[in-house]
Design goal:
The structure holds two protein chains of two kinds. By secondary structure, chain A is mostly beta strands. Chain A has one domain: Beta Barrel (Cathepsin D, subunit A, domain 1). In chain A, 8% of the residues lie in helices and 48% in strands. Chain A is built from two helices and ten strands. In chain A, strand 5 and strand 6 form a beta hairpin. Chain B is α+β, with helices and mostly antiparallel strands. Chain B has one domain. Helix content of chain B is 21%, strand content 36%. Chain B is built from two helices and three strands; from the N terminus they run αββαβ. The radius of gyration of chain B is 13 Å and the shape is globular. The N and C termini of chain B lie far apart (36 Å). The chains are: A mainly beta, B alpha+beta. Chains A and B meet through strand 2, strand 3 and helix 1 of A and helix 2 and strand 3 of B. Strand 3 of chain A pairs parallel with strand 3 of chain B, so a sheet runs across the interface.
Chain lengths: 130, 72
């Protein structure tokens, strides 16, 4: 079972995620926050543009923001998403406003995680997936 | 250059490298430095001009002094 390690007892689990766009021949590894409470994986527009992921203004979904309001945001498809060597194809992702000052380039949410068993051992700082 | 060396060489910056070596789990550990700086948007612009495998990361503390509640 592949493992990643993080600081024990921290509540922020950051994972290296490889995003691939076959059409552009571009593959980029970014740091994402593991977010088991999120329906979708989410990326900021800078990542979509950099990868060359098509953003169709007609393809949107409604999200509930942390402020308690609803917002319509673009919904895109990522050719391949890989974490700890585990690949999923054609993963849905929403485009969100994620400031670069967070140091993050996305949230790894349910649209990827639903394919895997995910064990988060907070006391020991271990993430296992299979 | 090794990723860990770059973190020390360019603290609190965004770093973009062309990947040359990954570990067994596919995480980049070494590569050619393409660009670095405070502006992540500029680095993503660099990626948009190229093909290949890249790693982009922030060398400082992630989510410093910030609590997170996201819904998506």
């Amino acid at each position: 079972m592949p493992k990643a390690y993080f600081r024990p007892r921290t509540t922020i689990v950051v994972v290296a995620v490889e995003l691939t766009n076959r059409a552009t021949g571009r593959s980029v590894t970014v740091n994402m926050l593991l977010d088991t409470g999120a329906t979708y994986t989410a990326i900021p527009m800078r990542v979509a543009k950099g990868l060359g992921v098509p953003v169709d203004p007609e393809q949107t979904t409604r999200i509930l923001t942390a402020k308690g309001s609803f917002e319509r945001v673009p919904l895109v498809r990522l050719d391949q998403v890989q974490v700890l060597g585990l690949s999923s194809e054609d993963v849905e992702a929403v485009i969100i406003n994620l400031p670069a000052k967070t140091g993050l380039d996305g949230l790894l949410g349910g649209s990827y995680l639903r394919d895997y068993q995910v064990l988060i051992d907070y006391p020991h700082g271990i993430l296992e997936m299979e | 250059m090794k990723v860990e060396d770059l973190r020390h060489q360019y603290p609190n910056e965004w770093i973009l490298l062309a990947v040359e070596e990954k570990d067994v789990l596919g995480v980049p550990v070494e590569g050619q430095l393409v660009a670095h700086g405070q502006d992540a948007e500029t680095l993503w612009g660099e990626i948009a001009e190229r093909q290949g495998q890249f790693y982009i990361f922030y060398s400082g503390e992630i989510l410093k002094d910030t609590a997170v509640i996201f819904c998506a």
